[in-house]
Amino acid sequence: MNERKVYSREFKQRAACMVIDDECSVPDVCATLEIGPTALRRWVDQVRKERQGQPVKGTKAITDEQREIQNLKAKIKRMELEAEILKRLAAALDVGSRSFPMIAELRESYPTAIVCRTFGVKRSSFYEWIGRLGQPDARREELKAKVVEVARSKPGRAWAPE
């Protein structure tokens, strides 16, 4: 039984380049390299498409540029999955209540927009929270004044501020 031959990416590229760049005929290259014409034509078509920036689906890239593009796309997909997992982890740990202080701390080292996007928080909401930090809460001040008023109206109590 005939065993199928496996050719390296470099071999395929060199064979296709002999036809494309060196203008050798397909039968001549097939005879020289002892390969079938169907395989060589497929490699030639793939190299031509890859040189035009068109990846051939379902095949490993032959040219270095397309191989790099495939590697980068795989890396992007993996990083997107990792980010999704981290967002779910943050939700499971109930980081939401502490997200603004954490964003404030992380923005010292990372861009605010990216940190907010990672936490699923709108930048405008974060900046609104930052703006409120220095300002006293009006309701809290109102309640504090009432407590002091009640405390002063009851002289002799230990908790009454003077």
Automatic annotation (TrEMBL):
Q: Can you supply a Gene Ontology BP term from the record? A: DNA transposition
Coiled coil ranges (UniProt) are 62-89
Q: GO MF terms on file?
A: DNA binding; transposase activity
For this protein, the record's SUPFAM superfamilies field holds: Homeodomain-like (SSF46689)
Any idea which UniProt keywords this protein has?
Coiled coil
Q: What Gene3D superfamilies does UniProt report for this protein, alphabetically?
A: Homeodomain-like
Q: Where is the signal peptide?
A: none
Q: Which domain of life is it from?
A: Bacteria
Q: Which InterPro entries match?
A: Homeodomain-like_sf, RD_transcriptional_regulator, Transposase_8
Query: What Pfam families does the annotation carry?
Result: HTH_Tnp_1
Q: Which family does it belong to?
A: Belongs to the transposase 8 family.
| Record's protein name | Transposase
